[in-house]
Amino acid sequence: MNLDTRIFYDINDFARTTPWLHPIVSGYAAYGVVLFAALLLAGWWSARRDGDTARMAAAMWAPLGMLVALVINQPIAAAVDETRPCTALHDIVVLHCNTDPGFPSDHAVMVGAVTAGLWLVHRRLAALAAVAAVVMAFARVYIAAHYPQDVLAGLALGAVVSLAGYVLARPLLRWLLALAAGTPLRILVTASPAKPVAAR
């Protein structure tokens, strides 16, 4: 038995001895992504309030980076084609099971990308997201939907795609922000009032 499977069994044994946690962990494993959506919204609001162009560009990218990371993950997961533990292993506690490939974890990719994106926007929000991401990774293993390596790979992939993508997309994002500043969309990217046009 390899280390990854051994750690999975240790977490599954913990799940077996904590039935009172099942609805809480299962709920977070399935719907915890809503928390990350709220953190993204808070990051956007913070950047808009402060009128910081660099942070607003990062706030614009953070949700896009998550989507890009998910798109990149799909062919990787299909190529690896890993059977999930809930299907591959017997005599384990299973709280949720999918039939699609499990490596890397889509949920972990999403929360890893959001955490990295928020790190560019607001460090305190990123710290909250990092804690929530670790809990999400644990929850996905706890419910037997993934092995530990699935969620670790997902967190890493999401973070790398988000950070690398921002470096590439930053010039375009800043150009779009400058363009939006002269339109009614200005209200979405900054809370500061438009500068009055000087009289001739």
UniProtKB/TrEMBL annotation:
It holds the Pfam family PAP2. Coiled coil: none annotated. GO terms for cellular component: plasma membrane. SMART domains: acidPPc (SM00014). It is an enzyme of class 3 (hydrolase). Gene3D superfamilies: Phosphatidic acid phosphatase type 2/haloperoxidase. InterPro entries: PAP2/HPO, PAP2/HPO_sf. Keywords: Cell membrane, Hydrolase, Membrane, Transmembrane, Transmembrane helix. Residues 59-166 form the Phosphatidic acid phosphatase type 2/haloperoxidase domain. GO terms for molecular function: undecaprenyl-diphosphatase activity. The chain crosses the membrane at residues 28-47, 125-145, 151-169. Its EC number is 3.6.1.27. The keyword ATP-binding does not apply. The keyword Nucleotide-binding does not apply. It is a multi-pass membrane protein. It is found in: Cell membrane. This is Undecaprenyl-diphosphatase BcrC. It comes from Nocardia macrotermitis. The lineage of its organism: Bacteria, Bacillati, Actinomycetota, Actinomycetes, Mycobacteriales.
